[in-house]
């Protein structure tokens, strides 16, 4: 592993993006399987094989590392939401779901982490931080995107745009937050192949159920 400190220079250490990313990756893994209070900066540093001082250098604190981890995990999804706000078309809507599945398939415990925090008391600092981040990232979806898709004849006229949004979010999020025991009862094994097949199935449900065929939406 490369050193984050260039011993040939004096002063503050130079930024090592590999080290920074390693801390984020291991923090995400630990926060996803343990409660926030049980995860310490020393634990994250030890798992990363890095001096704990580097967490203070890059992120200032455990809270800063946690917020950075959440924001950077959700960054690809935020980009697609912003794109959907601008383009408002079938391809952007489907690409948003594809991106969500791609990100969460390699981080399957992350969605549960989000929802566990959102169930904490509203005075909890981690819940407040998560609400702030989640609101910033998903806010465009609250700006009547589905209503605008309906006005552009992209969504079927006999469907409620608000309920279409709820259906879309449910298809996208539920498979990753459902208790494994419930899925096991249904004979579902949540592996990469399952999520790949479910994604393609859900896209067919969306394009065949919520959206008008392209020739009708023109």
From TrEMBL:
One Pfam family from the record: TetR_N
Keyword Ribonucleoprotein listed: no
Entry keyword set: DNA-binding
GO molecular function: DNA binding
Record feature DNA-binding region, as residue ranges: 40-59
Domain HTH tetR-type, residue spans: 17-77
Alphabetical list of InterPro entries matching this protein: Homeodomain-like_sf, HTH-type_Tx_Regulator, HTH_TetR, Tet_transcr_reg_TetR-rel_C_sf
Keyword DNA-binding: yes
Protein name: Putative DNA-binding transcriptional regulator
Protein source organism: Photobacterium piscicola
